[in-house]
Design goal:
The complex is a heterodimer of chains A (507) and B (417).
Chain A lengths: L2 E12 L2 E12 L3 E5 L6 H9 L8 E6 L2 E2 L5 H6 L2 E4 L11 H5 L6 E2 L2 E2 L1 H15 L14 H14 L4 E5 L7 H16 L3 E5 L3 H7 L2 E6 L2 E7 L6 H9 L17 E11 L7 E11 L3 E5 L6 H8 L6 E9 L2 E2 L5 H7 L1 E4 L3 H5 L6 H6 L7 E2 L2 E2 L1 H14 L16 H13 L5 E5 L7 H16 L3 E5 L3 H7 L2 E6 L2 E7 L5 H9 L4
Parallel strand pairs in A: 3-10, 3-11, 6-9, 9-10, 15-22, 15-23, 18-21, 21-22
Antiparallel strand pairs in A: 1-2, 1-4, 4-5, 7-8, 11-12, 13-14, 13-16, 16-17, 19-20, 23-24
Helix pairs in contact in A: 4-5, 8-17
Chain B lengths: L1 H7 L9 H11 L1 H20 L7 H26 L7 H18 L4 H24 L5 H20 L9 H8 L8 H11 L6 H28 L6 H23 L6 H19 L1 H11 L1 H6 L4 H27 L10 H11 L11 H21 L3 H26 L1
Helix pairs in contact in B: 3-17, 4-11, 4-12, 4-15, 4-16, 4-17, 5-6, 5-7, 5-15, 6-7, 6-15, 8-15, 10-11, 12-13, 16-17, 16-18
Classes of the chains: A alpha/beta (507), B mainly alpha (417).
Chain lengths: 507, 417
């Protein structure tokens, strides 16, 4: 077999971060090559380098494709050469038909006039190839995610694909749809299409892959050949690595009485009513305890947190939330706040802050009653509150009248924390509290979390960074596909153990 | 904003680098000062080209009467726009309520107070209906209120059967054309009238002018003291006094002019009280704060426990009530309800709010800005009419002023970023 693609010592730096460091990847013609790695390991960055999203010159290293040096300046360049990526978030226009989507940007037109007959005809042939029994005029809207994925593949085939890249293609699929998709990959392989699949699901990787490359912390760790047998243990070990340095401040770990309990929590998708997002979850948090929720992106962690916090996500929510053993009313956000909950959102810019307003404005927002009398705000009280949290959390800013949009990520996160601490919550749910924050600020956020637990508050910490969970938590729940698949004291937990719980499909 | 943070480093310390401070402060607050200077410049310009007609007491009185309903609606519109929406129906609703009042009073013979209350309730109900679709069903407000604009324009026609209905009884007309009687002894007024060489002099309105000017100075000083205490970058001392002096002098001058005519029109009192209430509501209360949060980032506001749907709904109810009040004042002023009343007035109201510095995307804008914006439009309308400029050119010029104001805003923001 000849080598179709070779990426040599690819290094890509962003300001302050080395996203990729000397990554090597060799893909042979006609194989299915799997890339495995944790969230943030650098898989997507590598694929963006390959497809020209980061153009030649913005990275170091060389890409050899079809035996020659390739310097793609944009997605168009790489697509012309037959490299096509199908992203996790599908890039289809829901209001257009299958045929319209397949030929979008590549219309079967003469002098700007589209020949619909030809488009539909060719679409039919493509749909047959991917095994999708739908009319070319069906709107994307009316298809499930699995079928949409097949349309994406048909679209790729319409462009004479030579190297098909699938980024976590089965993340949103049911099991039988996943199986169909993987079989289709094998079929395309038989027809001579080379594929790269990015996946966390090791059973799927074992099912389709000829070669596996593992990436960790921006470097390629190992390349494994299926012919020599793929061991899941080996892949997991390579994915998580071993080094666990002393990046977490010490804490006096002593959990008190049970503070919050969630019982038999079920949530359905707000639009796709047949999809159950949270499946019968029960959990508890003790006073002074930091409880982690581990899981991959899309496993339902954020949906769980938001549905508990004032039913801000989902429909047909059932189950019970108890605080101090008594049922708490969490049916609306303001009631959840009154009950003693606080939720620090994953996306602080679009969900956590009002960027055009000041630190003071944002700090008091969730508890305006505390700085007002009979509905009239007291300026001095407001400033005092904002100053108090600025000092306590060591937010670096010239004054509390600074717009939060001008602050760094770490300081913005402190403002969000200040807003919630100002509601005097009993349980704080922190969703990816250190995402996009530099190392120094991370340590400060960890110290704040420890301080909260020392005050006897319960903390639920959702994170994709497993070392962070292991370093910070007392107890960890492992979540996968909307359900808890494991629970363990942090002392007994390891990245390998968590990862293998996630990747070993149930049943 | 970066310029602001630099001047902040030595808190509550003035005097050092006053000129540099002045420059950077002006740059950071270009919009506020620009608006004020634009209004003054426009007034001076028209004062000159109309040969002094603009500032004659009778014309100033007219200026207030002509623009009162625009300003009243601009108060509600500011809140709607800050919350991230728009209301295109206000002109039609205003016309409809005026028509309703005419039918109830003139045709049905209902007492005036009952009609006024009824009309305000109807306005609120109209706002509630539109707010319901916007807030609960999340239909874009542009569409809901565009529909409302057509519906109520049609309903006014239907209600009046295409005819004008009037005239109104005296006690309804005073809503708009009445004047507050002088409470001071007549001799005092006569004496002062002699002193200023005018035919009559309303001591009450002039005293109110002095009181208002005093209040402006006092409030400014109070805010300054607070800013100094917290080390907030404040305007340089010279600028503060210059601005305060100009504003208070303008207030006194305007009230003086009014005093030498027939005194304080009722509608100016209504308008003034409403401006104060809404400025207080938006800047000093919890509900006002929540409206800004809602417009600034609806999702974040919602996740902070703010009942965003209810607030949106209330913003439209409030708009409806104010549009109804404007409708009553407009009908009282014309002394008749016509099917064409309020036609395209919504555009003047919306333009006033945007000239006043509100952002289309919501979350920012001030009551005082909207009021000044409305006056800029009003003075231009009035001045150009006195000059005898045709309605064709007037529209073009107003359009260009709106565009220039918003462009100025965007240009400044880009420069700062």
């Amino acid at each position: 077999m000849t080598t179709l693609l070779e990426m040599q010592s690819i290094t890509k730096e962003f300001p302050g971060v080395k996203a990729l460091d000397q990554v090597n990847l060799a893909v042979k013609s006609g194989e299915i090559h799997a890339i495995c790695g944790e969230n943030g390991a650098g898989k997507s960055t590598l694929m963006k380098v390959l497809s020209g999203v980061y153009p030649a010159g913005s990275y170091d290293g060389e890409i050899h494709y079809e035996g020659a040096l390739a310097e793609f300046r944009g997605i168009r360049d790489s697509e012309e050469r037959g490299i096509i990526i199908i992203h996790q978030e599908l890039a289809l226009v829901p209001q257009l038909s299958i045929a319209e989507n397949i030929f979008l940007g590549n219309e079967t037109a003469r002098a700007g006039v589209i020949d619909w007959h030809e488009a539909n005809h060719r679409t039919e042939a493509l749909l047959l190839k991917v095994g999708l029994k739908e009319s070319p005029t069906t709107l994307i809207d009316s298809l499930g995610v699995g079928k949409q994925q097949l349309v994406e593949i048909a679209k790729a085939l319409s462009k004479d694909v030579k190297l098909l890249i699938l980024d976590e293609p089965t993340a949103a699929l049911q099991e039988n749809d996943s199986k169909k998709l993987l079989d289709l990959m094998l079929e395309l392989k038989a027809q001579g299409v080379t594929s790269i699949i990015i996946s966390h699901k090791l059973n799927e990787v074992r099912y389709v892959a000829d070669t596996v490359t593992v990436i960790r912390d921006g470097t390629s760790v190992s390349t494994l050949d299926a012919k020599q047998g793929l061991s899941e243990d080996q892949i997991v070990r390579d994915m998580v690595g071993r080094d666990m340095s002393d990046r977490y401040p010490d804490r006096d770990r002593r959990a008190g009485d049970v503070l919050m309990e969630v019982e038999n929590w079920n949530v359905w998708h707000p639009q796709h009513l047949e999809r159950q997002i949270i499946k019968d979850i029960s959990m508890n948090v003790r006073a002074g305890e930091v409880v982690g929720i581990a899981g991959l992106m899309g496993s339902g962690r954020t949906e769980l947190a938001m549905s508990i916090f004032g039913k801000s996500y989902g429909r047909n929510i059932s189950g019970e939330v108890k605080l101090h053993g008594k049922t708490a009313d969490v049916s609306r956000v303001d009631r959840a706040i009154t009950a003693g909950l606080a939720y620090v959102t994953e996306d602080r810019k679009s969900l956590g802050l009002i960027l055009d307003e000041t630190i003071q404005f944002n700090t008091t927002l969730a508890n305006l009653e505390g700085v007002s009398k009979r509905g009239v705000l007291n300026d001095n009280d407001e400033t005092a509150v904002a100053e108090k949290y600025r000092a306590a959390l060591r937010t670096r800013t010239p004054s509390v009248f600074q717009k939060v949009g001008n602050l760094s990520g770490g300081n913005q996160q402190k403002v969000v924390l200040a807003k919630w601490l100002n509601t005097d919550p009993e349980v704080l749910i922190l969703d990816e509290p250190t995402r996009g924050i530099d190392v120094g600020a991370k340590y400060e956020i960890y110290a704040i979390i420890n301080e909260l637990s020392a005050q006897g508050k319960g903390v639920v910490m959702i994170s994709s960074e497993m070392p962070e969970l292991l370093g910070m938590c007392d107890r960890i729940y492992v979540m996968n596909e909307g359900a808890f698949v494991g629970e363990m004291p942090a002392a007994e937990a390891s990245q390998e153990r968590i990862m293998s719980l996630i990747v070993s499909e149930k049943e | 904003m970066t310029t602001e943070s630099k001047t902040m480093s030595p808190p509550s310390e003035h005097g050092t680098g006053e000129t540099k401070g002045l420059k950077s402060y002006l740059a950071a607050h270009m919009r506020d000062f620009g608006l004020l200077f634009a209004l003054i410049a426009i007034m001076v310009f028209f004062q000159i080209v109309t040969g002094g007609t603009l500032m004659r007491p009778v014309n100033i009185t007219n200026l207030f009467l002509q623009n009162s309903y625009i300003i009243i609606m601009a108060l509600g519109m500011l809140i709607v726009i800050v919350s991230g929406h728009i209301d295109l129906s206000v002109g039609s609703v205003m016309g409809f309520v005026g028509a309703l009042a005419a039918v109830l009073i003139v045709n049905e013979g209902l007492p005036v107070p009952v009609t006024v209350v009824l009309c305000l309730i109807v306005g609120g109900a109209i706002g509630a209906a539109q707010g319901y679709f916007v807030a609960i069903w999340r239909i874009p407000s542009f569409i809901v209120t565009l529909a409302g604009m057509l519906v109520f324009r049609g309903l006014s026609l239907w209600l009046l059967e295409g005819q004008s209905v009037g005239p109104f009884p005296k006690n309804f007309q005073i809503l708009s054309t009445g004047f507050v009687p002088d409470i001071f002894p007549a001799a005092m007024g006569e004496g002062l009238a002699g002193l200023f060489g005018s035919r009559n002099f309303n001591v009450l309105s002039f005293s109110l002018g002095l009181i208002a000017a005093g209040a402006i100075i006092q409030m400014g000083l109070k805010k300054r003291a607070r800013n100094a205490q917290y080390g907030i970058a404040d305007e340089p001392t010279g600028l503060f006094w210059a601005r305060t002096a100009i504003v208070s002098a303008a207030v006194i001058l305007l009230m003086f002019k009014l005093s030498t005519f027939r005194g304080l029109p009722n509608v100016v009192v209504t308008m003034g009280v409403l401006i104060l209430i809404y400025a207080f509501l938006t800047e000093r209360t919890v509900i006002g704060r929540r409206i800004y949060a809602l417009g600034g980032n609806e999702k974040a506001a919602k996740l902070s426990g703010i009942k965003t749907e209810r607030l949106t709904f209330l913003a439209f109810v409030n708009m409806g009530v104010l549009a109804a009040l404007a409708g009553l004042i407009f009908a009282a002023r014309l002394n008749t309800a016509t099917p064409k009343a309020g036609f395209s007035l919504e555009l003047d109201v919306i333009a006033a709010v945007f000239i006043g510095g509100a952002s289309m995307s919501g979350g920012s804008g001030k009551i005082i800005g909207a009021v000044v914006g409305a006056f800029i439009m009003g003075v231009m309308n009035n001045g150009m009419s006195i000059m005898g400029i045709g309605i064709d050119y007037q529209q073009v010029i107003k359009g260009l002023v709106l565009l220039a104001a918003v462009f100025f805003d965007v240009y400044n923001k880009n420069k700062q970023a």
